[in-house]
Design a protein that fits this description.
Layout (H helix, E strand, L loop, with lengths): L2 E5 L3 H12 L3 E5 L8 H7 L3 E3 L2 H7 L2 E4 L18 E4 L5 H4 L3 H4 L5 H8 L4 E4 L23 E6 L2 H14 L2 E4 L22 H10 L7
Parallel strand pairs: 1-2, 1-4, 2-3, 4-5, 5-6, 7-8
Antiparallel strand pairs: 6-7
The structure holds NADP nicotinamide-adenine-dinucleotide phosphate (NAP).
């Protein structure tokens, strides 16, 4: 039985936890304030869920989702995530996160920052371009006409296959943008960021994406 650990249990973390429990996974959720502040969500999620510290959630998860405001990514525990698949949902909003020069000049991507912080983990970008509420309302069974697709990016092929299977269970097709360095194609203000898109449409969006300096 796979356990999904969540570092961050806000809009996206809560929704991913709901999808995971509905798909039969155990979840361990965490936030910055402590497990006692997550009891309402644990109660809603039921017996497959428990709250813990982020250190414990990282240790317990076979797959761990990092879904915190980007400015806090360096607070994610490193040692318990060694060798693990880590899903990164984070986006860069300077008004929330402060200025990060290497993202402003696009010499790196948000997920590459997390990968640099977690050098021995397998980081896969996912869930960053869908509104949290839609995670539990837009999923459809495999093979549905016009099924919504979500983009992933990552440097580890096996990890991406695992995330593709997870997204399929959650109700979404997947489009692979390539390595983490290509994740900019689905960053804030790109065509695919936000709207409901099929796989074919998203492929077009990725191809049409422009760098911030070209906008
Ligand atoms: N909202 C969306 O629709 C959406 C869609 C796609 C991607 N995203 C991206 O996904 C990330 C999370 O977004 P969100 O909307 O879910 O944010 P949110 O609702 O503000 O939730 C953030 C969560 O992270 C926790 N957290 C903050 N610092 C932490 C730390 N150092 N260790 C452990 N947990 C920590 C917070 O805990 P406390 O409350 O205890 O501080 C909270 O549970 C962001 O980068 C965002 O840009 C959001």
């Amino acid at each position: 039985m796979t356990t999904i650990g969540l570092i961050g249990a806000g809009h996206i973390g809560g929704q991913v936890a709901r999808l995971a429990v509905a798909s039969g996974y155990n979840v361990v959720i965490s936030n910055s304030r402590g497990p006692e502040t997550l009891q309402d969500l644990v109660k809603e999620l039921g017996p497959k869920a428990r709250a813990a510290t982020s250190l414990e959630a990282a240790a317990a998860g076979d797959i761990v989702v990092v879904t915190v405001p980007l400015k806090n990514y360096r607070q994610v525990p490193v040692a318990p995530l060694v060798g693990k698949l880590v899903i990164d949902t984070n986006n860069y909003y300077p008004q929330r996160d402060g200025r990060i020069p290497e993202l402003d000049n696009e010499s790196t991507t948000t997920a590459e920052l997390l990968q640099a912080h977690l050098p021995a983990s397998k980081v896969v970008k996912a869930f960053n371009h869908i509104y949290a509420a839609e995670l539990t309302t837009h999923g459809q069974p495999k093979g549905s006409a016009n099924r919504r697709a979500l983009v992933i990016a990552g440097n580890d092929t096996a990890a991406k296959t695992t995330v593709t299977n997870l997204l399929d269970q959650f109700g979404f097709d997947t489009v692979d943008a390539g390595p983490l360095s290509e994740g900019w194609r689905i960053q804030r203000d790109t065509p695919g960021y936000g709207p409901r898109r099929t796989a074919e449409e998203l492929k077009g969006d990725l191809a049409a994406a422009k760098r911030y300096r070209e906008m």
